[in-house]
Request: fold
Amino acid sequence: YCGLLFRHEGWPLCIHEKIVVQLAAIDWRILKPGDFYLQVVPYLKKSPRIVLKCLAKDKHNVEEVVIPEVSYTSIFTLEWLSTFNGERMGIALENCLLTTDEKIFRVPWDKVVNPEFINKPKIIENTLVNGVCTSPVPPENLKSDLE
Reply:
């Protein structure tokens, strides 16, 4: 998304006031078949892990799947969820639970992984230099886009 300004600058961790990656568990009774949420959990004395939580087959427990760290760069894609669904048995997951202080929102995954942008500047060419995106857009144009 080089050169684009996100409408919700916290994406993908949050979409405006709605939190996408949870820091605490959500009450399992809210989960319906096809629902899931992502949560950061502690892992021994190592870096925290991201887990996917969904309703278990018995519909009375939560299934928890640790997402491999190598997948972190692709989590927020349609392909990731499609691959995840292909590797598990049961109802396909399609709705991600997002939270605010007061509410829980059931949002289709394709809405979560396709962020909105304020504008789409015309960029002729983008390049990666040492993992950082650079663009030929002059700094004065970027400043006016930010305003």
Notes: The helical segments are 78-86, 109-112, 139-146.
